[in-house]
Amino acid sequence: MAETMKLEIFRYRPEKEKEPSFQTYKVPFREDWVVLDAINHIKDEIDGTLSYRWSCQMGVCGSCGIMINNVPKLSCAAFLKDYYPDKIRIEPLTGFPVERDLIFEMDDFMTKLTEIQPYIIRKESEEKPLEEGEYLQSPAELAHYKQYSMCINCMLCYAACPVYALDSTFIGPAAIALGQRYNMDSRDQGRDARQEVIASHDGIWECTFVGECSVVCPKDVDPAAAIQRAKVSSTVDWFKDILIPWGKKK
Amino acid sequence: MAKSNEPIWWSLFSAGGMVAAMVLPVLIVITGILVPFGLAGEDPLNFERIHSAVSQKDSVKLVLFIVITLPFFHWAHRFRFTLVDVGLKSVSTLISVLCYGGAIAGTIILVVIFWNI
Lengths: 250, 117
Known about the structure:
The complex is a heterodimer. By secondary structure, chain A is α+β, with helices and mostly antiparallel strands. Helix content of chain A is 34%, strand content 13%. Chain A folds into 2 domains: 4-104, Roll (Ubiquitin-like (UB roll)); 107-247, Alpha-helical ferredoxin (Fumarate Reductase Iron-sulfur Protein, Chain B, domain 2, Orthogonal Bundle). Chain A is built from 9 helices and 7 strands. In chain A, helix 6 packs across helix 9 (223-243). The radius of gyration of chain A is 22 Å and the shape is elongated. By secondary structure, chain B is mainly alpha-helical. Chain B has a single domain (9-116), classed as Fumarate reductase/succinate dehydrogenase, transmembrane subunit (3 helical TM bundles of succinate and fumarate reductases). Chain B has 4 helices and no strands. The longest helix of chain B has 31 residues, at 58-88. Chains A and B meet through helix 5 and helix 9 of A and helix 1 and helix 3 of B.
């Protein structure tokens, strides 16, 4: 008989039940299957009512983040064989309100992402006309921020962050890392605009440097380092403001 | 958004952490290994000798001042966030006052002691 494996999955159907519950499914065990394959198998063959997010199946889209045995992971990158023969417990990412089954509400993250203005900002007077071509960048300048640009907005870092879990006003790891990604881009001039949010109390200063964000990041972005670097540069700003108040930037 | 005054505490915190990380291992080697195993000569921690070294040299006082006070602020910042994280966020202002106040009090006490010896 073919080997099987048990998946214990968080269920919540607001139209039907007040409280969430767990439902256990038996799926075939295959060496080359990831947890997402098993969940897709459940959806197609066993229970069509199960709701969850997924898209690319190759760790690029960032939509399939779930808690696997209490650890935030991309379900497309977690192999069944790493858990076999034990039962796997699957829940939506912690720290977010659950909408249905494994689907959680991401509005809070989306708002924060917008606040951080994660795009290149040029001062109006220094924007060059299109005919003059692109803003050139050396490989060294690219290397400066490239690591932070790998973020896929999967929100695993938010699920891992104990500070965000306690107080969701915290801007959070991914948003700060993305802010830092643009701050460190040689073509960008928007740091002052972003500092409003990043250097605020709910920005970098809420972070207590637990570092779990960097541990769970599937793209090795290292948001914890981004936050530390932002703390150093914001502190330099602060002392400059105090010591040379007349040197204020326009 | 209101400008945060966190940088002053954070810079004292990180300076304190760095001082502690550099000095503690040295202290452990001296007081935990060299002195107890008799590798630091006869009676290395003689009170009179250490007292005169501290009281007569301002440079020794300065180094000790840095090594002692910065870790106070490291403790204050860390302990403040630990208390907030265990659920005392509602009294976070009081916690900040007590923690940083404690570090400042410790600093003042040290200044008074150094002034008088």
